[in-house]
Write a structure and sequence with these properties.
heterotetramer, A: 358 residues, Rossmann fold, 12 helices, 31% helix, B: two-stranded antiparallel sheet, binds thiamine diphosphate, binds magnesium ion, PdhA/BkdA (chains B, D)
Chain lengths: 358, 390, 358, 390
């Protein structure tokens, strides 16, 4: 799985680091990838002259010309379908879907072709293409602008599903996605576009390539498993947890970075160590990413678990309007509530013992 | 005979006995956009002279519409709207769409068409619910016969076809008017909707407001067609091309098409050539992708000014009437501002009851969870747990 | 949840029962629904004159006319989109998607509109429509004719997901789906279309409406949780299991019938009783339906479980070509293999103890 | 100048200064299907006389094609193919498509177009892999420049556009020929592909084989257009209408369109009017939805007979040559039959290695599981566990 991107020797040198946003790191990753490989082509709605509605493609059309960074007609199935043909000819298209819900028109192309072309042709026509999808909520977007559609992509064999949570990961994972010979759904957490870190674009920190989770905060009491927009929430919760519980909890936070392939090794090792786990994501809980993760942990760590694996997720509802979204999004308190239910004392009680007679 | 059998269409026979098919000629649009008010030249010779009452009604509506657009844009600056896609410059289309509809007809608007809904009679505060962000939709669609504002482009078009078809199946004389932008015509749903409408001869009219841009993408990057109205013939649907800044012309073309639809004549595709004078939304910076002189050229063809001049030339309007109309618009804008400045009533527990007809156990549990959290936050220890910390 | 369909008094009378296929029961359900309610309209590709490629709509156009059972142009997004508009006007469209993968073009209409219209309009515009999707494999279909797409639908709040496994359920559940005021994805297991049972169309057995699972075979050793095409496989496995293990296993088989709403009550009660569970389905395992089900059981039955909840599912690959599909589909042996791993003896061992160092 | 800037398209200016746009007239198709061989009348007067060598090549190919279709259908009866969608009756289109392509051009076939691939030179056994069911695809697409047979309708069309566009960006003189059925034109992907092709002036030719039916649905329920070729103008793409049973005419139209595409002239939409003489596939019963006399009318315009007559009239063919050609076709059919009667080599473990470039741990575990199961079945206790019981 490791299409690790080679990094300059001074990688991560603190000296030249300056505050950069995730959006800027993504922009830089596209630029560097386009400079490094003439086969990389960026395309999508408003990605050219405008530089994208989130400005992630800013300046690319100017530097590389409209043939390399192309505004397309407004037709997502067409965009992805055309990208498939370009990939068949040997190019590496990088497609931008303007918002998560606007990737849905391209669903058939994705599932029936992008994910299967390599397999169908026994490797004859690989699909080295990247689909960038801004996803998730928390930005006050109206209907259809805040969906978390990762469950759909995870359930589709043949594609990778990657999502960064930090500025260096945004750069490193996007480079790895574009370099991958397989199709990658690259989910960009919208509300982290403006998140900042000190970062040196001339010497970006190396990222181990697609398929590796990372322990963002080591801990011993329980493991929080999360990704993308919920990573900062979990880190904040872990800090707050030091004050909670009988003697405070020391929570480990794992940023999955890649939902497919799933880094079972890192996850299982952590949960076997801590004995407790909570999965946190924005996507609706039912049949969401947390289902797979919790099921897998429950199976592989059965004898190590002190408590059931709990999930903190968006409710099982259509994404709410801007003024109500804060009630839907998993926040620090909801995470801590779940941690508190991890059977710290003996004697397990249900959350709603009378709910439906169960 | 069923409604699906009424329309005889292309059924090719072997070339030697090739039979005549639909004649394409009447389906092709006019060579120039149809106009009543005319361009700089003023009153047009040709064309039936519209009734004074209609002209005055349209005038009032575009003046109100312009002021409404300004007010809504101002509300975004005050944080009262999450976002506003203005139809400034497109008021002629908006107003004509709202007013051309018969009482039982339905309107299928996009996010940019709040003014069309207002012109149709929907309460302006209710229409802005989506864009304010208190809910996804704020008015009673069945009572107003206005479908929800639609955000995923072109997806509302098949809905309009389906509704119109359903009405026809029930024997109701109802037409649907579906609005879409120039960019939206590139989506597959546009194609499928037009094709269904044509094959089923659904009483639906498609109005493409060609405002030159899909966000930053100019029409030349969207299509290579002679005009968008030329898309009609490929479905067997007549295409009409109209000056979209000429409210009278748009109103006339739509009225004709809606009448035809209601009386079983099938669908029509209308392209109204207009221009988005403002940015895509308040969040957009239009200077990144278009030059000021292009905007200026279109300002010279402003739909409000055009109609005002037309009415003055016809002796239907004087300075006094103009200021009276503007004042009335100002009062309505004040009213809108005042009502929008009140915080909407929000109930977080509304997240759950509308997902299904009856709640599932799962959703009930989640509703209980939220209620518990809200209660904990309210009667909590004052540390702000539950509400403020995120 | 119970839009239970009223049944004639002699329901289930054995007297007049005759062998009927699932396809025939579905056909009869459509006919009866159309007779009972003039607002029910059937539409789709080839559903009229031909009666559908699986003949489920056979005779409907003839009896009710083309306006009630309409051949549509070949455009799935258009079909579902038009159905949305019809439902807005008060009709009850029943849409046929010809094969599972050919429902993908309609994905945006489904997710962005069908599932959200009621919620968006606070109940003002409910979507009483049914989307019939023949799904699953085992019929020797070439590419794109054997997908199991239920994971996508389960992850979409606002729709119900229902799938019959028996002839009476096919009738009863389809009637309930059409009668429901909410949109229902009605998944028809292709390879059970020709499965037979003795059945009386004049007095069909009552079905408790959408949202209720059923215990198809009571048992005490472990619970097999399944639905649709895997129900007969599990029943066969349960029979075979009587001969396996130390003293034979007595397996309980639950047919979920409805994936959304999920009948947690029935499932949890069973697993708490048996202490062991295997989820079985054709859909790929990773992020598939079994993830949610296993996660939910693991959480709600934590203290009752003697062994981890295991999953027997399709592999995480694109659906194979006809000549290889039997290797992909969960069969009796694979189910029994999983049952054998449910820690019957003390001492838990992993399936691949050296796999990846976990 | 970049390839995306070469094409000046519809950019409307305010109505008073409306500028001339693309002229729609040259984009409209001919009023009658273009034909060279003519109908019952025989040799046509007009039109350039095609070269004898080409005529003979086409004749050989349609005779072989007809026999190939018969053989493949027979193979379904013997259980050697899972399914076969025959192109009997459409051989002229199939063969012309295969032969009109330049060496570097690409073909994008649908499930029905195996004969086009064979005419292009793909091994007939390899082309049947999908329909035999041993794998999804059996030939080397890059070597043959034939994309995989495509099952989801119209989804191959944007692929063709993308490949053609990529070739143009690289400066390669390559055109793509994409095949689609009449039913497939209703899908959104058809629309989006044509629009992309037009806006980007991609070197791609779309050939619609209008065979009158989409399974059971006749064209009149699929479209109300004057003809499918009339869809071109709505994209700014020239539409051509051709007698699809006239191999010479189809070949000429395609050759012209491909040449134009390769030399930067942009896409073309070709509608070939033809007929599916057999059922949709061997699994279909066509008598449920069409009358025998309709089929008979088309049999009178059989593409093989038409070409044979044309050649005889031109003195290029006599009885002897006819039987020689048929015998050659018979031998090829025998060869196909013999090779198809061999069981394909199957390796269940091939389920895993092609899903990704490198296997994931998860897939490796599953591959191990399957290997264990297969081993258990092979060296098992003979009770059949693992393999037979399902
Ligand atoms: C399916 C879909 N894709 C993308 C978007 C994002 N988007 C919103 S408006 C817009 C441009 C629409 O242009 P046009 O159709 O011309 O309408 P206008 O905004 O000019 O009124 C885009 C790309 C969307 N809403 N829906
Ligand atoms: C997206 C999609 N929907 C439905 C089908 C099922 N299907 C296979 S062939 C066919 C009819 C196609 O008709 P047409 O395009 O005219 O091609 P023909 O079979 O006549 O060559 C249908 C509906 C499909 N393959 N793909
Ligand atoms: Mg526009
Ligand atoms: Mg056809």
């Amino acid at each position: 799985m490791s299409t690790a991107v080679r990094q300059p020797p001074e990688a991560g040198a603190t000296a030249a680091r300056k505050p950069a946003t995730m959006g800027q790191a993504l922009n830089r990753a596209l630029r560097d990838a386009m400079r490094a490989d003439p086969d990389v082509h960026v395309m999508g709605e408003d990605v050219g002259t405008l530089g994208g509605v989130f400005r992630v493609t800013d300046g690319l059309a100017k530097e590389f010309g409209e043939d390399r960074c192309s505004d397309t007609p407004l037709a997502e199935a067409g965009i992805l379908g055309v990208a498939v043909g370009m990939a068949m000819y040997g190019l590496r298209p990088v497609v931008e879907m303007q918002f998560d819900a606007f990737a849905f028109p391209a669903f058939e192309q994705l599932v029936s072709h992008v994910s299967r072309m390599r397999n169908r042709t026994r490797g004859g026509l690989p699909m080295p293409l990247t689909v960038r999808v801004p996803y998730g909520g928390g930005i006050g977007g109206v209907e259809h602008h805040s969906d978390s559609s990762e469950a759909y992509y995870m359930a589709t064999p043949g594609i990778h599903v990657v999502t960064p949570a930090t500025v260096p990961d945004a750069y490193g994972l996007l480079r790895a996605a574009i370099a991958s010979d397989d199709p990658v759904i690259f989910l960009e957490p919208k509300r982290l576009y403006w998140s900042k870190a000190d970062w040196n674009p001339e010497a970006p920190e190396p990222v181990p390539g697609i398929g590796k989770a990372v322990v963002r905060r080591p801990g011993t009491s329980a493991t929080l498993l999360t990704y993308g927009p919920s990573v900062p929430v979990c880190l904040e919760a872990a800090e707050a947890a030091r004050e909670e519980g009988a003697e405070g909890w020391d929570l480990e936070v794992i940023d999955l970075r890649s939902l497919v392939p799933f880094d079972e090794e890192t996850v299982v090792a952590s949960v076997r160590r801590t004995g407790r786990a909570v999965v946190v994501h924005e996507s609706p809980g039912f049949a969401g990413p947390g289902g797979e993760i919790a099921a897998r942990i429950s199976e592989r760590c059965f004898h190590y678990l002190e408590a059931p694996v709990l999930r903190v997720a968006g409710f099982d509802i259509p994404y709410p309007p801007p003024m109500l979204e804060r009630h839907h999004l998993p926040g620090v308190d909801r995470v801590l509530d779940a941690v508190a239910r991890l059977q710290w004392e003996s004697g397990w009680t249900e959350r709603h013992p009378d709910g439906g007679g169960i | 005979m069923t409604v699906l059998e009424q329309h005889s269409a292309y059924a090719p026979t072997p070339p030697p006995s090739w039979r005549p098919r639909t004649d394409p000629a009447p389906l092709l649009p006019e060579a120039e956009p149809y106009s009543v008010l005319g361009g700089e030249g003023g009153v047009r010779e040709s064309g039936v002279e519209p009734e004074a009452e209609l002209l005055l009604r349209l005038y009032e509506a575009v003046v109100h519409g312009r002021r409404y657009n300004e007010q809504a844009t101002a509300l975004t600056k005050q944080g009262r709207l999450a976002v506003y896609p203005s139809s400034t410059g497109q008021e002629a289309c908006q107003v004509a769409a709202g007013l051309a509809l018969g009482e039982r007809d339905w309107l299928f608007p996009s996010y940019r068409d709040t003014l069309a809904a207002v012109a149709r009679g929907v309460d302006p505060v209710e229409v802005l619910s989506l864009l304010r962000g208190d809910w996804h939709h704020g008015y009673d669609s069945r009572a107003t016969r206005v479908a929800p504002l639609c955000t995923p482009l072109a997806t509302q078009l098949p809905h309009a076809v389906g509704l119109a078809h359903a009405a026809r199946l029930r024997g109701d004389e109802v037409a649907a008017l579906a609005l879409v932008g120039d960019g939206g015509t590139s989506e597959g749903d546009f194609h499928e909707a037009l094709n269904f409408a044509a094959v089923w001869q659904a009483p639906v009219v498609f109005l493409v407001q060609n405002n030159g841009f899909a966000i930053s993408v100019p029409l030349a990057k969207q299509t290579a067609a002679p005009s968008l109205a030329h898309k009609g013939v490929g479905y067997g649907v007549p295409g009409r091309l109209v000056d979209g800044n000429d409210a009278v012309a748009v109103h006339e073309v739509l009225t004709e098409a809606l009448d035809r639809a209601r009386s079983g004549g099938g669908p029509t595709l209308v392209e109204a050539v207009t221009y988005r004078l403002e940015a895509h939304t308040n969040a957009d910076d239009a200077t990144r992708y278009r030059a000021a002189d292009e905007v200026e050229a279109w300002r010279a063809h402003d739909p409000v000014a055009l109609l005002e001049r037309g009415l003055r030339e016809r002796g239907l309007l004087d300075d006094e009437a103009v200021s009276a109309t503007r004042e009335a618009a100002e009062r309505r804008a004040e009213d809108l501002r005042a009502r929008m400045n009140q915080d909407p009533e929000l109930d977080p527990e509304e997240l759950f009851p509308h997902v299904y007809a009856q709640g599932t156990q799962q959703l009930q549990e989640q509703a209980v969870q939220l209620r518990d959290e809200l209660a904990a936050a309210e009667f909590g220890d004052g540390s702000g747990a539950g509400e403020d910390r995120r």
